[in-house]
Design goal:
With about 160 residues, this protein is mostly beta strands. The chain is about 5% helix and about 35% strand. A hairpin with a 2-residue loop joins β3 and β4.
Protein backbone atom coordinates (compact mmCIF):
# COMPACT_ATOMS: atom_id res chain seq x y z
CA UNK A 1 0.00 0.00 0.00
CA UNK A 2 1.04 3.61 -0.54
CA UNK A 3 2.39 5.86 2.11
CA UNK A 4 0.04 8.51 3.42
CA UNK A 5 1.75 11.87 3.75
CA UNK A 6 0.79 14.79 5.91
CA UNK A 7 1.91 18.34 5.26
CA UNK A 8 2.57 21.40 7.36
CA UNK A 9 3.62 24.67 5.77
CA UNK A 10 5.89 26.98 7.72
CA UNK A 11 7.32 30.49 7.40
CA UNK A 12 10.40 32.27 8.68
CA UNK A 13 10.89 35.98 9.26
CA UNK A 14 14.58 35.69 10.18
CA UNK A 15 16.09 34.41 6.94
CA UNK A 16 15.38 30.73 7.66
CA UNK A 17 16.97 30.46 11.13
CA UNK A 18 13.66 29.50 12.71
CA UNK A 19 10.29 28.52 11.26
CA UNK A 20 6.70 28.75 12.54
CA UNK A 21 3.70 26.68 11.45
CA UNK A 22 1.05 28.39 9.32
CA UNK A 23 -2.34 27.60 10.86
CA UNK A 24 -4.52 25.54 8.53
CA UNK A 25 -1.82 25.16 5.83
CA UNK A 26 -1.79 21.34 5.72
CA UNK A 27 -2.16 20.43 2.04
CA UNK A 28 0.44 19.55 -0.58
CA UNK A 29 0.40 23.10 -1.98
CA UNK A 30 0.14 26.54 -0.41
CA UNK A 31 -0.88 29.84 -2.01
CA UNK A 32 0.00 33.19 -0.47
CA UNK A 33 -2.87 35.49 -1.28
CA UNK A 34 -2.57 38.33 -1.05
CA UNK A 35 1.15 38.71 -0.51
CA UNK A 36 1.77 41.81 1.58
CA UNK A 37 4.74 44.15 1.22
CA UNK A 38 5.67 43.38 4.85
CA UNK A 39 6.19 39.72 3.88
CA UNK A 40 9.06 40.56 1.53
CA UNK A 41 11.96 38.12 2.11
CA UNK A 42 9.92 35.75 4.27
CA UNK A 43 11.02 32.14 3.76
CA UNK A 44 8.49 29.34 3.24
CA UNK A 45 8.88 25.57 3.39
CA UNK A 46 6.76 22.47 3.85
CA UNK A 47 7.33 19.64 6.31
CA UNK A 48 6.14 16.38 4.74
CA UNK A 49 5.62 13.53 7.19
CA UNK A 50 5.28 9.88 6.18
CA UNK A 51 6.00 6.51 7.76
CA UNK A 52 9.74 7.28 7.89
CA UNK A 53 9.27 10.59 9.71
CA UNK A 54 9.28 14.25 8.72
CA UNK A 55 11.29 15.77 5.87
CA UNK A 56 11.73 19.52 5.38
CA UNK A 57 11.67 20.95 1.89
CA UNK A 58 14.17 23.58 0.82
CA UNK A 59 13.01 27.05 1.84
CA UNK A 60 11.84 29.47 -0.83
CA UNK A 61 12.17 33.23 -0.39
CA UNK A 62 9.16 35.41 -1.15
CA UNK A 63 9.75 38.61 -3.09
CA UNK A 64 6.95 41.17 -2.87
CA UNK A 65 7.13 44.08 -5.29
CA UNK A 66 5.20 47.02 -3.95
CA UNK A 67 2.80 48.89 -6.19
CA UNK A 68 4.18 52.20 -7.44
CA UNK A 69 2.96 55.20 -5.42
CA UNK A 70 2.47 58.58 -7.09
CA UNK A 71 0.02 61.44 -7.50
CA UNK A 72 -0.96 63.45 -10.54
CA UNK A 73 0.19 67.06 -10.42
CA UNK A 74 -2.33 69.83 -11.06
CA UNK A 75 -4.29 69.10 -14.19
CA UNK A 76 -7.29 71.24 -15.07
CA UNK A 77 -10.79 69.78 -14.76
CA UNK A 78 -12.08 71.83 -17.67
CA UNK A 79 -10.54 73.62 -20.64
CA UNK A 80 -11.74 75.39 -23.75
CA UNK A 81 -11.37 73.81 -27.16
CA UNK A 82 -9.26 76.81 -28.19
CA UNK A 83 -6.88 76.60 -25.18
CA UNK A 84 -3.19 75.94 -25.64
CA UNK A 85 -1.88 72.43 -24.97
CA UNK A 86 -1.58 71.45 -21.29
CA UNK A 87 1.60 69.82 -19.92
CA UNK A 88 0.85 66.71 -17.86
CA UNK A 89 3.02 65.63 -14.94
CA UNK A 90 3.01 63.34 -11.92
CA UNK A 91 5.22 62.87 -8.88
CA UNK A 92 6.74 59.84 -10.63
CA UNK A 93 8.21 60.56 -14.04
CA UNK A 94 8.51 56.87 -14.91
CA UNK A 95 5.00 56.40 -16.28
CA UNK A 96 3.08 56.60 -19.54
CA UNK A 97 0.25 59.02 -20.34
CA UNK A 98 -2.62 57.97 -22.60
CA UNK A 99 -6.05 59.11 -23.70
CA UNK A 100 -7.78 61.04 -26.46
CA UNK A 101 -5.84 64.24 -27.15
CA UNK A 102 -2.70 63.00 -25.35
CA UNK A 103 0.68 62.85 -27.10
CA UNK A 104 3.64 62.12 -24.85
CA UNK A 105 3.00 64.23 -21.75
CA UNK A 106 0.82 66.87 -23.42
CA UNK A 107 -2.98 67.14 -23.61
CA UNK A 108 -4.20 69.19 -26.60
CA UNK A 109 -7.86 70.25 -26.30
CA UNK A 110 -8.32 70.78 -30.05
CA UNK A 111 -7.12 67.21 -30.71
CA UNK A 112 -9.24 65.78 -27.90
CA UNK A 113 -12.45 67.39 -29.17
CA UNK A 114 -15.50 68.49 -27.24
CA UNK A 115 -16.76 66.47 -24.29
CA UNK A 116 -15.51 64.70 -21.21
CA UNK A 117 -12.08 63.20 -21.85
CA UNK A 118 -10.34 60.72 -19.55
CA UNK A 119 -6.57 60.76 -19.40
CA UNK A 120 -4.61 57.93 -17.80
CA UNK A 121 -1.17 57.69 -16.23
CA UNK A 122 0.33 54.24 -15.63
CA UNK A 123 3.50 53.41 -13.72
CA UNK A 124 4.94 49.88 -13.67
CA UNK A 125 7.58 48.62 -11.24
CA UNK A 126 8.81 45.02 -11.42
CA UNK A 127 5.56 43.84 -13.00
CA UNK A 128 3.28 45.76 -10.62
CA UNK A 129 1.23 48.55 -12.18
CA UNK A 130 -0.62 51.50 -10.64
CA UNK A 131 -3.03 53.47 -12.83
CA UNK A 132 -4.52 56.89 -12.10
CA UNK A 133 -7.13 58.63 -14.25
CA UNK A 134 -8.31 62.24 -14.49
CA UNK A 135 -11.29 63.67 -16.35
CA UNK A 136 -11.01 66.87 -18.37
CA UNK A 137 -14.13 68.53 -19.75
CA UNK A 138 -13.40 70.19 -23.12
CA UNK A 139 -15.89 73.03 -23.70
CA UNK A 140 -16.68 75.20 -26.73
CA UNK A 141 -16.36 78.50 -24.75
CA UNK A 142 -18.45 80.56 -27.18
CA UNK A 143 -17.70 83.75 -25.22
CA UNK A 144 -14.27 83.66 -26.84
CA UNK A 145 -15.72 83.86 -30.33
CA UNK A 146 -15.58 87.25 -32.05
CA UNK A 147 -18.06 87.86 -34.82
CA UNK A 148 -16.50 88.91 -38.11
CA UNK A 149 -18.52 92.11 -38.23
CA UNK A 150 -17.28 93.26 -34.80
CA UNK A 151 -14.00 94.97 -33.92
CA UNK A 152 -11.28 93.64 -33.72
CA UNK A 153 -12.28 90.64 -35.85
CA UNK A 154 -11.36 92.50 -39.02
CA UNK A 155 -9.45 95.65 -39.60
CA UNK A 156 -10.15 97.36 -42.90
Amino acid sequence: TGTVLSYQWQFSTDGGVSFSNIAGATTASYAISPALAGQNNYRFRVVATGTCGPVNSAAAALTVNALPVFTLNSIPSSVCLSDLPVSLSATSGAGVWSGTGVAGSVFTPSLAGLGLRTITYSVTNAGCTTVRTHNIQVNECTDRHVLLNRYPAIDI
